[in-house]
């Protein structure tokens, strides 16, 4: 534990927790302080001026990051017949109907994104209590309930990131890897924040983007001047 604490303290050196940094400087600091033995994910957290308990203040959507996420995404598809064949051809990792339902009900969730054709939703709806809390429930608003199975699988595999505001008004997502260039990370962050800003709900009042921070999986958070990230 002492070794970990020492590592954390070292990573925090030079970061003023009360200061807001420009986005470029923040990304440089996150990259420089990532010291894990694996390729850490770079994450963004945004505090929004919304209360998601109200329907007109919910923020959710999907954004295609220009440089991908650097993560291998496993995709499950609920489909039958020709659409199931289309899903397999597009590179889906798991394809099925009742058989896939049984696997998931049995507690095995071996995927990161779930897509369904509209006709499968009565079946998938029975998994709401399992998939909902994991943010895996297919939803037409983010393009995961669709007849364009090929396009949805391609987007999921190519760097599409879903986002949804949590109870405290916070959105967070992985937007790349530490091994990415600063330019690639900056492009991904701008694409992500742009999508969140465009998703501003009708019920949002006052300042919409209150705080922004970036970090790596094992590294400290760096607070960002919001205006430089938008």
TrEMBL record:
GO molecular function, one term: structural constituent of ribosome
Any GO CC annotation of this UniProt entry: cytosolic large ribosomal subunit
Alphabetized Gene3D superfamilies for the sequence: 3.30.190.20, 3.40.50.790
BP terms from Gene Ontology: regulation of translation; translation
Keywords: Repressor, Ribonucleoprotein, Ribosomal protein, RNA-binding, rRNA-binding, Translation regulation, tRNA-binding
A Pfam family assignment: Ribosomal_L1
InterPro entries referenced in this protein's UniProt entry, alphabetically: Ribosom_uL1_bac-type, Ribosomal_uL1, Ribosomal_uL1-like, Ribosomal_uL1/biogenesis, Ribosomal_uL1_3-a/b-sand, Ribosomal_uL1_CS
Family: Belongs to the universal ribosomal protein uL1 family.
Assembly and binders: Part of the 50S ribosomal subunit.
Described purpose of this protein according to its UniProt entry: Protein L1 is also a translational repressor protein, it controls the translation of the L11 operon by binding to its mRNA.
Name under which the protein is recorded: Large ribosomal subunit protein uL1
